[in-house]
Design brief:
about 150 residues; alpha+beta; Lipocalin; 2 helices; 9 strands
């Protein structure tokens, strides 16, 4: 009788140990995005806006090419990258938003970027004026676009 109880306790202990090991091996630190900055989390993501023109952008965790942009003109795309690092000051790069100031020809814009599901919201503040632009997430390979020649 005592041996049977001991076997049951060993079996329960073994099951509990197995479940604990299984649970810990299934939970991954990779799933926890809260420790990543906005630029780390969304590095390389591509977004499209088709309100007036077809505009694709790619976010980069690189202040030399923070935002790349492709604008469709007929059969080809005009390409540039905005926000040169000399004129750029990152104010916030937290897990859920990016805020930076950009100065060009004496004019300063404050840009706030957030993601809401599959939507990228860009708020551009210049003086008293504010513009909000929404982009949809896309998987289009922007590197394959035909670039317009000047």
């Amino acid at each position: 009788m005592e041996t049977k109880i001991l076997k049951h306790r060993f079996l329960y202990f073994f099951i509990l140990l197995s479940l604990t090991v299984f649970y810990n091996s299934c939970s991954s630190d990779d799933d926890d995005d809260s420790s990543l900055t906005f630029l780390e989390k969304y590095d390389g993501t591509k977004w499209v806006n088709t309100d007036e023109f077809t505009i694709y952008i790619r976010l980069n965790n690189n202040t030399n090419k923070l935002v790349e942009q492709w604008v469709l003109f007929g059969e080809c795309y005009f390409y540039n990258y905005d926000f040169e690092s000399d004129n750029l000051e990152i104010i916030e790069n937290s897990d859920n938003s990016l805020i930076f100031k950009y100065t060009d020809e004496g004019e300063t814009e404050t840009v706030t970027v957030t993601v809401q599901g599959e939507i990228l919201k860009v708020v551009i503040q210049e003086g008293d004026e504010e513009e909000i632009i929404y982009f949809d997430k896309t998987s289009v390979n922007v590197d394959d676009f035909e670039i317009c020649i000047d």
